[in-house]
Structure prediction request, 198 residues.
Amino acid sequence: FFVYDSTEGLYGAMGPGTRENVGGQANPVIRTMVGVIRPEDVDSDWVDVLVTHELTHMVFSDATDNPYRQPPRWLNEGLAVYLSEGYTVSDRAQVADAASRGELTPLSAIAGLFPTTYQRFSQAYAQSVSAVDFFIETYGRDTLVRLITSYRDGVTDDEAFEAATGADFRAFDDAWLAAQGVERPDPFGPQPAPRGPE
Prediction:
């Protein structure tokens, strides 16, 4: 675990392709973690948050490692946030605010890379921990462990969710959206009524 005393130092070590807003990173392939701990943060809660967050990524990778596909990013990041910070008041407020503005995105939209703008990046993290919290409240921790470990067989999201919960990923995504008071957006918008013969 390499620790840097500034964001500039971290970004310099990680290289020019590093995305903004990164405070730490785990690279399971080379069994290495990096993070920023400024001198004034040494005795703060940030140290526990950073170390727990990055170690969670390492363990998650070990639990899901397979040659076929990666689990969704929202699950990986959501679990890391849940275990390092919990579903905080600020994350709850961010999810509620996005839902009220109609800007909450389905989890399927954050299964890969997260958005790059600060607001959307932060919202993706808040949504991720919200979804993990919802999963645990709905199914329990043991079921979450079953879901995560099923990915080591290289299964699809639907197969993983069906094995753990009895329903596919879309059902979970819809249930999570509904719990936030949001219906899944229709990608095609309202459809015109069929026209009869003229």
About this structure: The first strand starts at residue 2 and ends at 4. The chain is about 55% helix and 5% strand. Residues 118-139 form the longest helix (22 residues).
